[in-house]
Amino acid sequence: MSTYVIETEGLTRTFGKHCAVHDLNLRVPKGCIFGFLGRNGAGKSTTIRMVLGLVKPTRGVARVLGRDSSALQPEDRARIGYLPEGHHVYGWMTVEECGRFQASFYPRWNPDIFHAVLSHFRLDRKNKAGNLSRGQRAGLCLALVLAPEPEVLILDDPALGLDPVARRSLIQSMLYVTRRSDRTILFSSHLLSDVERVADEIAVLDRGVLRASCRLETFRRRVRQFTFRYQGDGPPLPPLPGLLQSFRTEGELSLTLANLDAETEAALRALKVEAFEEVPLSLEDAFISYVGERGEKSFFTRDLEGAKS
Amino acid sequence: MALHFEVVPGSRQPIYLQIEAHIRQAVASGRLQPGDQLPSVRVLAEQLTVNPNTVARAYNELLGEGLVDSHPGRGVFIASRRQTLAREERERRLDEAIRRFLNETAFLDIALPEILRRLETLASEYTNTNRKP
Q1: Domain check: are A170 and A229 in the same one?
Q2: Of A69, A115, B3, B22, which is most buried, counting CB atoms within 10 Å of its CB?
Q3: Is A282's CB within 8 Å of B11's CB?
Q4: Is residue A304 predicted with pLDDT exceeding 50?
């Protein structure tokens, strides 16, 4: 039995000529809170849908709980909780009716959890789902997905559009679920401070390609920024594999590098400059350096220059 | 033993280092004394709304430095002071801390003798140090 709750091998999906997900090898260990990161359109939702067997891969395979995603049976699905993007609800039902409707599909349904999440989000059971605020709707969706006590929880951008209080409730719910070490969460998000609070591991998807999959702290350690101060033109730089960004102002140069090897680091430290300093990066800055395109950053200036001439 | 602090995600300092720094500071200032019990990993993680593994990592680092002791089944306690780091490592950390300090104070235009005088005054408020005069 594999210790990976979610596993993909060479998972690929194309839509016409566009390759949404390319040759993805992803492994989510049991008991882990796994943050799935990437810009809009990076292929996160498509990957999630393939993992759930809702979209057929063009190539490759996805497995959940050891079962091929294309062959999931109702009893497998009962062990998986899926919160799709956007917090959809049936607006004509009351909160209580939504619960009863959902419960009828699951052999296991814990009303205590359902009501605990509702009260955590301060939801009135008699309210019509259609009248709920965005945050309350998210709470209802979360209650519906948690009550069957799924072993795997897949949340597609659950924090989208939530206010800070609702976001905190969401995080608390995620941490509560994983108190049991056999519960696993895969969630996608753009809110890196939330990711930093809860995630054990992260994967970074960039235009359909997996660029990193590791522990959160490993990612932070591997994206590093250095600044140099110098007189005149500055020192000649050694070759810099893994250079993500370089930023030069008068007398100062800032470099952001991924996976810096000891040899290159030694070469940088040996440069004859006035000051050399490593600047710690926040997770967000590290992420932006990692997936932001250098071309895009200069695009703005280039555009302005073009307008002048 | 309750610890009152917040962590700030999104900062340049990873959360586990923030937790370490808070506990270290509480010990240095005497707010936490040898023998004081720290909250359990679970309790502190809930209080801070962070992944328990992050708290566990901070505790492990402090354990490795000998700042806290772990008694399985009973909990984690502030250790009686003893030095486990090699002299070189201690000097390296001291230099690092001094550099941080200098970076933050350089622009204040206060002469070094006055800085040193104030340093001594403030240091005397840290009761739990066994630095020799």
Answers
A1: no
A2: A69
A3: yes
A4: no
Preferred mutation among A167, A190, A196 to probe B, highest tally of B CBs within 10 A = A196
Residues B23 and B66 occupy one common structural domain = yes
Q: Is residue A188 part of a domain?
A: yes
Rg, Å, chain B Cα set: 17
3-state helix, strand, coil split of chain B in percent (to 5) is 55, 5, 40
CA–CA distance, A38 with A48 (Å, rounded to integer) = 13
Single out the residue of B40, B128, B29, B23 nearest to residue B76, CA to CA: B40
Those residues whose C-beta lies under 8 Å from the C-beta of residue A224, and which sit 6 or more positions away, are A256, A257, A260, A278, A281
Is there a domain that residue A215 lies in?
A: no
Range of the domain at B112: 87-123
Higher pLDDT, A64 or B119: A64
Give the model confidence (pLDDT) of A258-279 as tens digits: 988 888 888 888 888 888 888 8
Between CA A54 and CA A68 the distance in angstroms is: 12
The pTM for the full model equals 0.84
Encode pLDDT of A190-220 as tens digits. Answer: 999 999 999 999 999 999 999 999 999 999 9
Looking at beta carbons, which pairs linking A281-285 to residues 24 or more positions away fall under 8 Å?
A: A281/A220, A281/A223, A281/A224, A281/A225, A281/A256, A281/B12, A282/A192, A282/B10, A282/B11, A282/B12, A283/A192, A283/A193, A283/A195, A283/A196, A283/A216, A283/A219, A283/A220, A283/B9, A283/B10, A284/A192, A284/A193, A284/B10, A285/A225
**In this predicted model, what pLDDT tens digit does every residue of A111-159 receive, in sequence order?**
999 999 999 889 999 999 999 998 899 999 999 999 999 999 999 999 9
Flag whether B131 is in a domain. Answer: no
Cβ-defined contact of A198 to B12 (cutoff 8 Å): no
ipTM of the complex: 0.84
Nearest to B70 by CA among B130, B61, B16, B32: B61
Q: Residue A231 half-sphere exposure, CB side, CA atoms within 13 Å?
A: 1
Same domain, A8 and A145: yes
